[in-house]
Amino acid sequence: MASSSFSSLLIYTQITLFLLILVLVSLTRASRAADVAMVDLSGDEIDWPTPSTSIYDGIDEIEIEEEDALAGGGRRSLMWSRMRYYISYGALSANRVPCPPRSGRSYYTHDCWRARGPVRPYTRGCSAITRCRR
Known about the structure:
The protein is an all-alpha fold.
């Protein structure tokens, strides 16, 4: 009699410990996932941009980061970047041409007014809509 009650107590204790460990593991995973998915809404993140801030500020650093990321071969995330992009008030003004006419620069070239080097116009591959007809 005593041995059966002892074995059942042992089984209940093992089940309880297993469930406790399972709950602790799931809680730590949930807290890690919450830390990764959390959006930082501190005061400086939601300030209005100043007129001197534009989407083209720091474009050289972005190109360096892209080269490093391609060389590393690791996964990239938008959350890792500390850059904040704003559209300048000048870009929002009416009747403004984004790039000089006949410069050969595409609208998609970052800061086409200060761009150096060869022209790389926007190109895209075939799609179901265009069926490769141009």
